[in-house]
Amino acid sequence: MAQWKAILLFGLVLSAACLRPAAAEEAEDADDEDYAEAERAHLIVRKWFKEERAVQGRNLTVHLELYNAGSTTANSVELVDADIPEGFELVEGSGRASFAKVAVGSSAAHSYVVKVAAAEGFATFEPAKVTYKADADGEEQTTVSTPAYVEAITAVQELQHYALIGGKYASLGMMRTSRDWFTAFAVLAVLGAALGGNSAYKGVSTARTNQRRKKALAELEKDA
Ligand SMILES: *[C@@H]1O[C@H](CO)[C@@H](O)[C@H](O)[C@H]1NC(C)=O
């Protein structure tokens, strides 16, 4: 009979455990409903670059898009972008913009152009700040955009990139004649010499160092 009691107790504990989260969920649902009932604008701001790559000496277009995912129009929208990182220079437009309104389900966009000057390697364009009136009371709301990341490369690195893509197509059988192959190899060899010219030298000096090591080892072994 003790067994039955244990099972009964177990059942009670189990149902209590099941009821508790259900009650909590109900409370959460109520909160969600309250929130959904309040008509407000909700801007989602994304920041990215129009160009695929940032090449030194060329332009890079910073693009910002403000999408209203809320349930009412966003009014008096002010966009202020963060300072551009070191190594980039502003050449056209600015990081500031205003929009009288952004309707529900639509977006506003702003872009400006910077030049990739002395930038090298990875750079972060910090998030832009956006303020707007989110509801009928004119309550001000502030949000930030996503940051945008870019890798600044040199024109030579860009050439190398295309050379590598070329190599990929070559291996896919795009090179039909031996002349095509010869041309491709000649181009890659010239690029290789320009880009990795000292790797051959490094190879030679490594070999020399290895020989010196071997000699030194041999000497040691003699002494031992
Ligand atoms: C970069 O943008 C500026 C301003 O729009 C333009 O005058 C210049 O020609 C552009 N430079 C290049 C390399 O596209």
Automatic annotation (TrEMBL):
Pfam families with a match to the protein in the record: TRAP_beta (PF05753)
Keywords: Membrane, Signal, Transmembrane, Transmembrane helix
DNA repair is among the record's keywords: no
Transmembrane segments: 181-204
GO cellular component, one term: endoplasmic reticulum
PANTHER family per UniProt: TRANSLOCON-ASSOCIATED PROTEIN SUBUNIT BETA (PTHR12861:SF3), TRANSLOCON-ASSOCIATED PROTEIN, BETA SUBUNIT PRECURSOR TRAP-BETA SIGNAL SEQUENCE RECEPTOR BETA SUBUNIT (PTHR12861)
Protein name: Translocon-associated protein subunit beta
Provenance organism: Raphidocelis subcapitata
